[in-house]
Structures are given as structure tokens and as C-alpha cells.
Amino acid sequence: MEIKRVTGTLSVSPQISVADVTEIAAAGFRSIVCNRPDGEGADQPTFDEIQGKARSLGLEARYLPVVSGKVRDEDAAEFNVAMAELPKPVFAYCRTGTRSVTLWALSQGATTPVPDILAAAKEAGYDMGGVARRIANGGKTPVDVADAEHDIVIIGGGAAGISVASSLIARDGELDIAIIDPADTHYYQPGWTMVGSGIFDAHTTARTMGSLIPRGVHWIKSAVAAFEPDNDAVILDGCRVVKYKRLIVCPGLKLDWHKVEGLDETLGKNGVTSNYRYDLAPYTWRLVQGTKSGRAIFTQPPMPIKCAGAPQKAMYLSADHWYRNGRLDDIDVQFYNAGGVLFGVQDYVPALMSYVERYHAGLNFHHNLTAVDGYARKAWFSVTKPGEEPETIETEFEMIHVVPPQTAPDFIRVSPLADAAGWVDVDQATLRHKRYQNIWSLGDVMNAPNAKTAAAARKQAPVVAENVVADIKGTGSQAQYDGYGSCPLTVERGKIVLAEFGYGGKLLPSFPTWLIDGKKPSRLAWLLKERVLPPIYWKAMLRGKEWMAVPEKVTVSGKTAA
Predict the structure, then answer these.
(1) Is 250 annotated in the active site?
(2) Name one GO biological process term (predicted).
(3) 310 and 382 in one domain?
């Protein structure tokens, strides 16, 4: 943790852990302010976890969340009130500290000379030049002056963002590209299912962002506040402006833990866990090892979610451990799915059902988790079966693996790029935006009807790279995305049902059936998941080596990209 002093009464830092609260108290701070919404990052503790620790140490804690980069004047006013009311000195944090400093700077705009605001922020390591322009412009960030300009700007440094940057560089090493992402760490999220079953260590799924940004690509370590597509501009944290000629949008999803009442208060304890968070996946494995009897619940929220098979993967691997250790007869395994089917592509269901029967797992469809009481070991589900009156049921558990509801990030949902449902609106074949011809999107945040998986991003990145380069050169060729997605369903330790499919559930196997029949559990598919896919991810996909992902090109007759 790095504490940065802004004034005598306020210091800030990037995201803190629960353990850091002890150090904050020892440093003499009397209050903590959280300016980061819960669920923004995959490794982020909830505010309730921070608040619980703060209270135990005699500190006050206040939750003033601000959408990534989107600091409103009203937010600054609330921050000013909090600074007046809370015991001092105050410690504030967000993902990087920028939102907290921005709130302070805007709250001081009417009473403190701008040079003094800029100097204090600079001393703490933050550039508030954009905030100064906003203050001078009556509260609105002007986009006529850019802090940076690049030919191609990529929003998001996850699997999709780094892969498409590498694919672009592989096609034209002279391109001026920038990736915008505030995260210090990049995660191989497909590995978290394996962490939750004791097969991978968590640390093997994480690497520093700086080590993965392709050589020659600029890394702008910031969050996006807003899009100004009519002005070819992106507004960042601190009200900075980045201009582009072409924009690629792929920031990933938001995990909405708050939509389940009581969940954020009990995550990581009381038998409540989730493989959808880096720091919780190891807890899943500890729970699986420690569960000897009682009910084990595994939930799946309404679609869309990233890796739709992950909720049941956790169930299969947990039940397999109990099966192998002779405990399964004493454990009641239950799968609660908000949807109406076990898996969206029917061809794979028979193989999955054989494991449901093997583990004596109960299937509860149209059951959506709405509340959890970890201390009482109880969960509540809203049941909405077709043709029946909705009802709420209560059930007890010894352990519960929760998959949170998921949405597009707030700054996407409220932007001009989004469709009515809040997803980036693209052509499902070319992945080009339907209204803005110099914008493309890939990964989990766009609205093409495909599975939201890293395997999908692996196929999408070359398509977008090919189409962007074709657009730059003015050629008539276009690469087409067929909706490919892959879900290696880990049905037992050592075997996988390798689901590969495209738009409309069409099967798109990568291997001949004599080698891997995706509709049957396979030892070879397990070896692919455990030993082959991680190095392919780190050493091929993220480096622009398009193994089994070369895009199909289609020449558009009589038409060239504008």
C-alpha cells in the first residue's frame, strides 16, 4: 500500500486490502472513504469488508462510490461534506487514487486557487490539469484540446485488449497504438475454476500489466470517464482528454455483487465463496476440502455472464472431490440456475447430465439468488417458473458458491456507444460499431450473441485487427467472426467436455472427433485445459500469434472501408 499525502487532513491511495486497514489505523488516520464502487475489479474486496475491519479498529468508514472516471459536481459536493463531518485525518481510496484526488480538487475549485490545487495534487503524484480545465470551463470538460492523441486507442487491457493490440502490431508495426487501463495486474481468469479445485495456485493466474503490454504500444494507466464519439475523443479520470482516429472498446464486465442482498457482507467467510474473484477462489478450495456433510449450493444468475459454464464447473469439480474421498453420500449437492436449461447448446447436455446423475446433484431451474445470510447459513431464491406464480424460497447451506449478476461497466451503459440493453452495439460479423464507423468492439462488453469467454476473444482479436488495418488501407476486404466460443466443462478431475460452438449453437470443433469428441468427456481435453491453454494464452494469444485463430476474409464487392 502506498499512502500519498494531499493535504494535512487528506491522504489517498490505490485500492486497499482488508489487511491494509490495520496499517492505516497505525498511521494515525481516523476515517476511511471508499470512492470505488464494489465489483469494479476482479481482485477487489467489498466496502463492507473494509468497513467491518475499520470499525473493529475504531475508525469511521464512509462509502462514496463514483463510476470509473465519471466524477460529477454532486459527487464532489458529497465528498466535501464528508471531509467536514468525518474525524481527521481522512484516508480515501479508489482503484488508483485519481478519483479521490479529483473529488477533492473539484470540491476546492470555488475556494482554493487552481495553481494551489494543481501543486498539491502534483506533490501527491496526480496530474489534475484536466480538472483545472473543467473548473475553468464551468464544470464541463472541453474536448477541443487533447492531452494525448493516437491513431488507435484501445479501451481495456484484458485478454481482448492486449490480444487485439498484439494482432495489430503483427500486421503493421508502425501503428501508433495506446491501451487505456488503470489496472496494475492482468489475470488469466479461465484459471480460477482450477484454483477453486486445488489444481492451480492463484499466483500463476496473475502477471503485471506492464509486462504484457506489447512493445511499442503506449499504456495510459487511467480509467475512462466518458466517450465523445462525435469528437473522436475519450475523457479519462482527472478530466484528461485522449483523441483517436480509430477506437477499439473491450473493457470487460462489471460484477454486480450488490444485486444479491447481504452477499458482499459475507463473501470469503461463513461458507460463502466465488471463483469469480481472484482472492476468493482459494477459499473455494478450502471449503471443498473442509465440507464433510450438509448442503452445498452452486448458483448461476441470469445471462449474460462471462463463461456460462463456470457455475457448473465449480459444482462438478467440488462433487468429484467429495466422490473420490467417500463423502458425497453425506453432502446434498444442489445447482440453482436462473435460466431454464443446464447448458445453452443441447448437444453437450447428455454428457453433462451423466455427471449430474453421478454426483446426485439436484437441478433447480428458474431459481435466481436474491439474498444470502452467511451467519445463519441461509439463502433465498426468487422462483419464476413458466405458467406459475412467482415465489420466494429459503434454503440452508453448509457452503455456497455464488456467481454474481453481471452487466456492462457503467461508463459503457450510459455512453452513446451502447444499445438499449447497455452493450456496445456492433455488427456481429465484422464487430464494427453500427453507428460510428471508426469504432470496433470485442470481448465481453459487445452485444454480438456469442459466449463471453477468453476463447471467443482469441478469435475476435484477429478479426478486429484485420478490419481496422483494412480500414486504414482503404481495401475492400473484411474479416468475419462466426460467433466462436469455447467452454471446457471440467466434469471431473482429469476429464473435460470440450464445448465449442458459434452463433445459433452451431458446433465448431477445433479437432477431429477421433482426437477429441467434444460431446464426450475427454482426458485429452483436460490436458489441453490444464497444460496447453495457459501457455497459449500467455505466449501466443497475448503476443499476436494467431494459432488456430486466423480470420476468414471476405472481399466486399464494389465497396471499400471509408
Answers:
(1) no
(2) sulfide oxidation, using sulfide:quinone oxidoreductase
(3) yes
